[in-house]
TrEMBL record:
Its EC number is 2.7.11.1. InterPro entries: Kinase-like_dom_sf, Prot_kinase_dom, Tyr_kinase_AS. Keywords: ATP-binding, Kinase, Nucleotide-binding, Serine/threonine-protein kinase, Transferase. Residues 1-27 are annotated as: Disordered. Gene3D superfamilies: Transferase(Phosphotransferase) domain 1 (1.10.510.10). Residues 81-374 form the Protein kinase domain. It catalyses: L-threonyl-[protein] + ATP = O-phospho-L-threonyl-[protein] + ADP + H(+); L-seryl-[protein] + ATP = O-phospho-L-seryl-[protein] + ADP + H(+). This is non-specific serine/threonine protein kinase. It holds the Pfam family Pkinase. It comes from the Eukaryota. It is an enzyme of class 2 (transferase).
C-alpha cells in the first residue's frame, strides 16, 4: 500500500530533490533456493597429490595420510566442505572457516583438501530463526534471497558471493568465499589513523561500485559500515545483507521509466531503528519513513570520513551529540578544520555532500560516482 508524503526526513528546506514522494512497504523477497545437505564425517586425504619428481625417479610414493573430518556435503551435487575453526558467533548461529574438498580420482569415496579454496560457512539455527521471527530486525532468510539476487548473472567483484546454500533438519548453511584480509575497520584500527588519500579513494570507489550494483537491483543494504566491508587482497567486499530491503518502483509507473524527472521518490515505511548507531541515518534513528538509498549514502559518508580521519565524524546522529549539531548546521567543514584533517578540497566537498542531515539534500549515488575526487 502506498501513500503520499509531503516531505521526508528530519525537516529543513529542501534544496536538492524536490520531487513528491510516495510511502510504500518494502517488496517481499522471493524464497531463496536451498538444497539439501548433510553433516557427516568424511575420509580426507592430506599431503601432496603426487610425489615430487625426484622421488618418482626412484619409485618414491607420496607422503599422504587419510583423516576423518567433519564435513558439510551437498546431497544433490556431492560438493563438500570440511570445517576447520570457528570465526565468530552471530545472532542466529555461528560462522565457521572451512576448506573446499574435491573427490580424489581413483580413491573411491575419499576427498582431497583444496587449500586454495577456503570458505566461510554461516551456520544458521532453524530454531533461532523461529525464535527471532517478528522480534529481530535481521532476517537470515531474506539475506540469502538478497545474496542470490545480487549473485544472479555472475554477481559483482565487490559484493559477497554465495557459493552454495544447503540445509538439514537443524540448520541452514550459507557457503561463501573466505576473504582473508578481515574487516576494513580492523585495517584502520591497526594503523591508528586514517589511510593515505589515494588508498582511501581506492577502497571507497570499490565500495561505491558494489553498492551501486545493489541499488541498480533495487536493494538497499541498511547496515553499511567498515565492519561490514571485508578485505580480499587489495579489494573491499560488501557483506552482511541481513537488514537488506527491496525498494519497489513507484506505484502505477512503467518499470522502464524509474529515473524520469517526474517520477515520485519512493520512501519506505518506517521499520524501526536498525544498523550501527555511528553509521545510522538521522531519519532511521528517529524511526520515520525513509529513502533506503539515501540511508546507504549517509553511511557511505561516515565510512569515507573514517577512512580519511581514522575516527567517525559523530557518535550518534542526534542533537545530543555536539558534532552532529555542527553537521546539521552545515558546519562539517569547520569540524574538519578544527581536527586539522589534511585532505584535499575535493575530498572535503564530497564529505560535505554525503553528510547532509536532510536526505533530499544528500548526494545521490550517480552524483557521487561522478565526483571529481573519484574521477580526477
Amino acid at each position: 500500500m502506498a501513500s503520499s508524503a509531503p516531505g521526508a526526513g528530519s525537516g529543513g528546506t529542501r534544496r536538492g530533490d524536490t520531487r513528491p514522494a510516495v510511502v510504500v512497504d518494502p517488496e517481499p523477497f522471493p524464497a531463496p533456493r536451498i538444497a539439501p545437505g548433510v553433516i557427516r564425517d568424511c575420509q580426507v586425504l592430506e599431503g601432496p597429490a603426487r610425489p615430487p619428481a625426484r622421488w618418482r625417479a626412484f619409485g618414491g610414493r607420496s607422503q599422504e595420510s587419510v583423516r576423518w573430518l567433519r564435513c558439510l556435503v551437498s546431497a544433490e551435487t556431492g560438493r563438500a566442505y570440511c570445517f576447520t575453526r570457528t570465526l565468530r558467533e552471530c545472532i542466529f548461529g555461528v560462522v565457521r572457516h572451512g576448506v573446499t574438498l574435491e573427490k580424489d580420482a581413483g580413491a573411491g569415496g575419499v576427498y582431497r583438501l583444496c587449500p586454495s579454496q577456503p570458505v566461510a560457512i554461516k551456520c544458521v539455527s532453524k530454531q533461532k530463526i523461529e525464535e527471532g521471527r517478528g522480534r529481530l530486525r535481521e532476517n537470515p532468510i531474506d539475506e540469502l534471497a538478497a545474496l542470490q539476487m545480487v549473485g544472479a548473472g555472475g554477481g559483482h567483484q565487490h559484493v559477497q558471493r554465495l557459493l552454495e546454500c544447503l540445509e538439514d533438519d537443524e540448520a541452514i548453511y550459507a557457503v561463501s568465499p573466505f576473504y582473508q584480509g578481515g574487516e576494513l575497520f580492523a585495517v584502520i584500527e591497526a594503523r591508528g589513523g586514517g589511510l593515505p588519500e589515494a588508498r582511501a579513494r581506492t577502497f571507497f570507489s570499490q565500495i561505491l561500485s558494489g553498492l551501486a550494483f545493489m541499488h541498480d537491483r533495487r536493494l538497499c543494504h541498511r547496515d553499511m559500515s567498515l565492519e561490514n566491508i571485508l578485505v580480499d587482497g587489495q579489494d573491499g567486499v560488501i557483506i552482511d545483507m541481513g537488514m537488506c530491503l527491496r525498494v519497489p518502483l513507484p506505484p502505477a509507473l512503467p518499470p522502464s521509466h524509474p529515473d524520469d524527472p517526474e517520477t515520485p521518490r519512493v520512501l519506505l515505511r518506517k521499520q524501526g531503528q536498525c544498523g550501527k548507531i555511528t553509521y545510522m541515518d538521522p531519519v532511521v534513528l528517529e524511526d520515520k519513513d525513509f529513502d533506503g538509498f539515501a540511508v546507504d549514502m549517509w553511511a557511505c559518508g561516515v565510512i569515507l570520513f573514517i577512512l580519511l580521519a581514522g575516527v567517525p565524524p559523530l557518535e550518534l546522529p542526534a542533537l545530543t551529540d555536539p558534532r552532529y549539531r555542527m553537521i546539521q548546521a552545515g558546519k562539517l567543514g569547520e569540524l574538519m578544520d578544527v581536527w586539522e584533517m589534511r585532505i584535499s578540497r575535493e575530498a572535503k566537498h564530497l564529505l560535505e555532500s554525503l553528510l547532509k542531515a536532510v536526505p533530499e539534500e544528500r548526494a545521490k549515488m550517480e552524483e557521487v560516482i561522478r565526483h571529481p575526487w573519484l574521477t580526477g
